[in-house]
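Here is one chain, start to finish.
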Amino acid sequence: MIATSGPAGLTAAQKADVIYAQARSELTTRLWRAALGSEEGGEKRAGGDVKLPMSLDSLLTLLKEDKQTPAPAMPQRATLPESEPSTPILPWDGQGGRQQQGRQQDATAGQAPGYGPNAGHAGALSAAAQRTGLPVAALATIVHAEAAKAPDGRWLPYSRNPRSSAAGLGQFLSGTWRGEAEREGTWLNAVARQRGWLNDHGRVKGEDRAALLALRYDPEAAIQATADYAKANLDALARAGVSIGEGAQAVAQAAYLGHHLGRGDAIRFLKGGLDPDRARTLLNAQIGAAGAGRRIAAVGDATVAHRTWLLDFIGRNIRAERFSA
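Its structure:
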């Protein structure tokens, strides 16, 4: 079981980090809601079917400066990369939320295969992988891609994405985390039941929501939930007729797409491509409107720009050989 019981087990510094991240995110959310005239509740995960506190799609639609939609590209099946691309990318830095040149390079590049500074998480990764049947290297790769990292490559459990409610090693949105707690058979569901956080209908009680969401900052909880979510995404892709392939690398790539895009968009991406409006929305959310606009202008098509960026990102970050013994 996890070592702490919600926020009570955190150190003073850790509590300060969580409180600051939460306050900053909630203030930003309220300002955006005020600007949009929207009510509390109603966000939908990009590509998913889980309800969240605010509508990212609506916000980005209002903020779009370019109202012209590029002509739809011919649908193409996405081919996941087999080697690392050379195109640089600028992912969220996990701390101040700013895109910084040089931070896109993997902090652990050049290290021998293994966990390096994250060896302390090896036990949780192994247990979660064994429970769900995932290759442990695939699970470690997904966590490595999602987690914010210190300059030495250490995963930062108390990180929060300022652009959304995503938090912790697994960067779970609030609604997705609640969904995993309410989904029968998951590790998080068992913990929620044990602690009395679910009502008679299996839903998270309002008074226990904060304690549940605080578990995103617990490394073991984040790793176990990432494993359950990855397994569910892989099962959904298989049911949709998507060929995943074998081996840790193929599993990691497919599972990460589900984690990154949500199941619906991951299936559409792999089976032929997203429509231009959706691709533009997702690219804006990931790298910002300015960066997305430059990439779309360079290729003349939002679907192609998003596919190119995401495949580059996967090729650079989803590399299971790092964690192979």
